[in-house]
Amino acid sequence: MSVAALERIKPAEVARRLQIGKSSVSRYLGQYPELIGTDGCVDWTEFQKHRGDNWRVGEPRPGESASAPTARSTGRKGIKQRLEEIRLEQAEIELARQKGEVVDARDVGDAVMEAASTLRDALMDPDQAFCDRLAAERDPRVCAQLVRDRERSLMEKFVASLSAIDGKPQDGGNT
């Protein structure tokens, strides 16, 4: 008898090896009938690989004992403990909000979009005085310096507008 033939097992044996109920294996095989051979057996190696690729929350991970504590198996005490953890986390968030350490993500998104739009507009439509000065200059090094100075000024304004999100001014930024 070949080794491959030894790996073909009945669904009840799959349940025993995984330490889960036969009905769970039956439901799984009902969802994936391609795993069942014409003989009604399952290739153990193929089943393990398939289950590893299609693992779902609430089931033990492949190789993990079904007796490992899960949200379902922890019972009433586990649920109370988790609820307490959630309450503590909510209290920490509220305290951080009161201290000004937390900002609304929508406000941040709006402020970033406003700052980016302002920067884009300034880059796409340079002021006339800058254009005239750049056009009058013949030395490429001076032109490059003028462009760098303008970009630096725009970026400082951009950083200053972003810093307004948390209300803390940035050092060295022009507003």
When the domains are counted, the total is 3
Query: Average pLDDT, to the nearest integer?
Result: 80
**Helix and strand sequence:** HEHHEHHHHH
Span from first to last CA? Answer: 82 Å
Instruction: List the uncertain runs.
Output: 1-5
- Share of residues in strands: under 5%
Largest sheet: 2 strands, antiparallel
Specify the number of helices. 8
Structural class comes to mainly alpha
Number of DSSP-assigned strands:
2
Helicity range? 55-70%
Shape: elongated
Could you give the order of strands across the largest sheet?
A: 1-2
Radius of gyration: 32 Å
Give a written overview of the molecule.
The chain folds into 3 domains: 3-53, no CATH class; 69-102; 105-163. 62% of the residues lie in helices and 2% in strands. The chain has 8 helices and 2 strands; from the N terminus they run H-E-H-H-E-H-H-H-H-H. The protein has helices at residues 3-6, 11-18, 22-31, 44-53, 75-98, 105-124, 128-136, 140-163, and strands at 8-9, 42-43. It has a two-stranded antiparallel sheet.
